[in-house]
Each structure stands twice: as structure tokens, then as C-alpha cells.
């Protein structure tokens, strides 16, 4: 029997008593620990990212195995579990790509798994299942009705989906025509994208542009009066809204709103969970924004838009991925192929090429064209190389640590050569992983009713505790 899922995001945990729901954690390089006491009917999932803090500063305890796991065990006991009855299933820690020297150097998934193992041994907790490593993302579930846990590789889910596959390779013109049926993005949004990318636009100019569009003005006002911002007094003008929210935030919210509408919420195409495509775009945007600021070699605003739009082509190809399942996923498993090879073979076009059709149609800035075209092959780019490399790295970090369950690729590499070009080293990437924008992600992508993130406190529900 399938029960509704409660998604446990990166850097969170969820503990509950018996109920007809299933906990689910989508894992790339992160480690998911399902722990339960079947006798006392209490269990939960911890979704942790890294082995231990980089410094004394810990912003989110669940982010680290060394701080999150002892706390998780403690809370399970407080919720009624008996330490002697606790059992665990552990998954994740993948290299979602073909391992190269860089991956082995970093191997954070492996280090987090090691830490988890040590802590579980210390507490003498029985490990029923341990499936870490491998090349692909997986998901860990815990059925709260019977406290049974399971681990499923994402790619396997795509392959085993029962579906008649009478897939016929589409004509290029068919895909191009499909682009005409995509709802056009409003001119004002395109203008905002250009303004963000030209650092010369002032707050006043942006305000003027926002004021010209009634729908966007209304959204900006609604947002500035929402719970996400301090509502000291209600405001009713755009200028006040911009002051309260900040020019950058307002642009982000507006962009996110329109881009989210474009991405399919299908669970049968690229994404194997609802909203996965937008989840991936937004997390890449936030990571890229932060990585640009961290390296200081590119504007964070450009990083944000580049991340948000890099996979635009998936909007056009999503339907074909869905129609060609399970063939698409079977091909992806072959380690010699990366996602763009598989797309070329099956659809006659990859998502970089498909993205360019939309970029041209929307007249996006040249820098975004280049990012879309080369984000899987940054070494081939001649212009805008820095932002392309940074987006490439952010894309990979997003699949590793903030996965929206996209089988992004079976072969993605960050090479030392590429890192050098943006003044990065494996050590610096390691340092950067501790700064991943989990809180910012939660603020911009509010939790769906069935998601949990950034646990702060626990409250009693349904005979258990709901941590939020
Ligand atoms: Fe991509
Ligand atoms: Fe991507």
C-alpha cells in the first residue's frame, strides 16, 4: 500500500509515531539514516550532508553527521524509542558521476558514511541495511505504518517503471515547433533578467520597470506583506516594497515565479519527483550565486540567473524523456554515456541545444546563451568561460547535495584543470560545501505541505513528534 510521502530535505530530520505516511529522503552524496523502534512504534529519517563542521560554527546541526546523528538518536529516545530496540538503514554517499581524482580527493559522501558508521557503532545500534556509494542518486523511505525502510536507486526506479515503450525519435522540427507552444515569458521578466546581468541598473530603474506591470507589482506587494518578511506595518507602494524586501530579493522572487511556471511538474520525465526540475534549477541558482561571491571572479547576480536558466532545454525535452522511459534510463546507466549523449541518440538533440531554441526565442542575454550551450562542456567555450565553469560546478554540487531526484548524468566531472581556471582548488570546494545555501533554499522554495527542512523544534503529533 502506498502512503503519501513526507519529503525530508537536506540538513533536516523528521521523527514520528505510527501514521499512514511514508518518509522519503532524496539522496545524492548526502547520507540518509532511517532509524526506528518497531516495538515502541517510533521512527524517523535524518538527511545529513557532511561528516563534521569545518569550524566551531554550526548553523544547522542536522547538516553534519557528528552533530546531527547523536541529536537525532536523542530525540528518538525522547519520542519514546528504546535505545536497545533501535535499528537503522543507511543509504546515499554516491559519486553521482564517474569518479575521477577530484571525487576521490573530496569523497565527502564516503567520509560522511564513515562518520555515521562510527556513531552507530558507538551507540551499538543494529544496522539492518547499508547501501552507500555507487554512481547514482537513490532514495530512502521509511513507511511509518509498519516502520519498514527501503533503499531504491533513482535510475532503477526509472528503468523498472512499467510502461509500453513505442518511442519514436522525434524530428528536429517537431521539437522546434514545440517551443512555439511554450507560454511566452513576460517582456518585463526578460528585461529584469537583462537588468540583473548588467550591473549598471539602479534600484530606481528596476522599481520603474516593476511598476509598469500590474501583475508583478501586485506580487511584489503581496510578498512584502507576507510572513517571510518583518511586517512591522502594512505597505502599499512598490517603492516601499522594494525597500523592505531588497532589490535583489524582489527580482529573485519574480524570476522564480515565472521560471517555476515553465518547468513541468511531471514525475515521469527528467524528474522522478514532483517539481524536481524547478528544485534543481533553484538550488543550482543559489549555489552558483554563493560560489560567485565566494570566488569573487563573477557577479553573484549573473550566477543566480545562469543557474536558474541553465537547464531550460529540459522544458522542451521532458515529454520525450517521459515517452521514452524506461529506454532513456537504461541508456543512462551505461557508464560510457553522459546525459547529453543519450539525449542526442534518442531525441536527435540534447537539452543544451533545446535550451538554445528557447533562449533565442526569448532573446536572453548572450551570457545565458553561452551557459545553456556549454554548461556540460565548459572546456569547449570560448567566451564567458568563467561563469560557464562556475555554473558547471554549481550544477554538480546541486546534484550531489541538494538533489531534486534528477538522474542528471552518469558521467559528470569536475577536473582540476577546470577548477584552476576559476581560482578554485579541491580544498576550497571542500570549504565551500559547508556554506551551501540550505536556509536560503528553504526561504525561496517554501516547504510544500509534505516537506520538512531545517528542524528547529519538535511538537507532538499523531502519537509521535513532528520536528520542524
Ligand atoms: Fe544540464
Ligand atoms: Fe543541471
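^ C-alpha cells above, recovered residues below v
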Amino acid at each position: 500500500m502506498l502512503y503519501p510521502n513526507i519529503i525530508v530535505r537536506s540538513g533536516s530530520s523528521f521523527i514520528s509515531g505510527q501514521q499512514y505516511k511514508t518518509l522519503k529522503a532524496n539522496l545524492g552524496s548526502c547520507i540518509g539514516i532511517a532509524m526506528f523502534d518497531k516495538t515502541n512504534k517510533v521512527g524517523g529519517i535524518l538527511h545529513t550532508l557532511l561528516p563534521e563542521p569545518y569550524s566551531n560554527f554550526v548553523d544547522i546541526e542536522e547538516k553534519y553527521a557528528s552533530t546531527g546523528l547523536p541529536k537525532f538518536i536523542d530525540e528518538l529516545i525522547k519520542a519514546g524509542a528504546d535505545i536497545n530496540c533501535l535499528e537503522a538503514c543507511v543509504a546515499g554517499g554516491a559519486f553521482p558521476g564517474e569518479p575521477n581524482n577530484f571525487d576521490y580527493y573530496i569523497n565527502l559522501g564516503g567520509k560522511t558514511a564513515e562518520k555515521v558508521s562510527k556513531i552507530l557503532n558507538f551507540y551499538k545500534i543494529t544496522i539492518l541495511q547499508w547501501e552507500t556509494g555507487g554512481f547514482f542518486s537513490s532514495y530512502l523511505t521509511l513507511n511509518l505504518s509498519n516502520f519498514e525502510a527501503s533503499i531504491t536507486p533513482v535510475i532503477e526506479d526509472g528503468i523498472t517503471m512499467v510502461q509500453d515503450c513505442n518511442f519514436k525519435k522525434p524530428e528536429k522540427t517537431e521539437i522546434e515547433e514545440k517551443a512555439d507552444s511554450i507560454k511566452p515569458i513576460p517582456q518585463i521578466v526578460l528585461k529584469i533578467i537583462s537588468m540583473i546581468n548588467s550591473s549598471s541598473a539602479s534600484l530606481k530603474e528596476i522599481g520603474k520597470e516593476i511598476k509598469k506591470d500590474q501583475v508583478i507589482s501586485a506580487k511584489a506587494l503581496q510578498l512584502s506583506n507576507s510572513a517571510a518578511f518583518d511586517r512591522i506595518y502594512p505597505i502599499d507602494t512598490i517603492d516601499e516594497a522594494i525597500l523592505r524586501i531588497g532589490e535583489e530579493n524582489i527580482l529573485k522572487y519574480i524570476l522564480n515565479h515565472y521560471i517555476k511556471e515553465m518547468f513541468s511538474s511531471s514525475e515521469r520525465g527528467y524528474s522522478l519527483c514532483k517539481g524536481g526540475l524547478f528544485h534543481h534549477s533553484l538550488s543550482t541558482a543559489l549555489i552558483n550565486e554563493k560560489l560567485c561571491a565566494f570566488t569573487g571572479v563573477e557577479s553573484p547576480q549573473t550566477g543566480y540567473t545562469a543557474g536558474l536558466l541553465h537547464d531550460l532545454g529540459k522544458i522542451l525535452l521532458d515529454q520525450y524523456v517521459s515517452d521514452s522511459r524506461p529506454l532513456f534510463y537504461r541508456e543512462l546507466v551505461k557508464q560510457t554515456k553522459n546525459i547529453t549523449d543519450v539525449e542526442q541518440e534518442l531525441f536527435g538533440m540534447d537539452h543544451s541545444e533545446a535550451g538554445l531554441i528557447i533562449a533565442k526565442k526569448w532573446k536572453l542575454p548572450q551570457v545565458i546563451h553561452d551557459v545553456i550551450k556549454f554548461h556540460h562542456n565548459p572546456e569547449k567555450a570560448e567566451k564567458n568561460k568563467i561563469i560557464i565553469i562556475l555554473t558547471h560546478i554549481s550544477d554538480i554540487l546541486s546534484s550531489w547535495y541538494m538533489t531534486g531526484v534528477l538522474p542528471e548524468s552518469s558521467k559528470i566531472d569536475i577536473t582540476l584543470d577546470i577548477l584552476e581556471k576559476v581560482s578554485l582548488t579541491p580544498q576550497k570546494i571542500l570549504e565551500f560545501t559547508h556554506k551551501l545555501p540550505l536556509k536560503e533554499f528553504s526561504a525561496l522554495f517554501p516547504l510544500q505541505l509534505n516537506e520538512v527542512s531545517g528542524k528547529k523544534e519538535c511538537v507532538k503529533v499523531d502519537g509521535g513528534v513532528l520536528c520542524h
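The chain has 21 helices and twelve strands.
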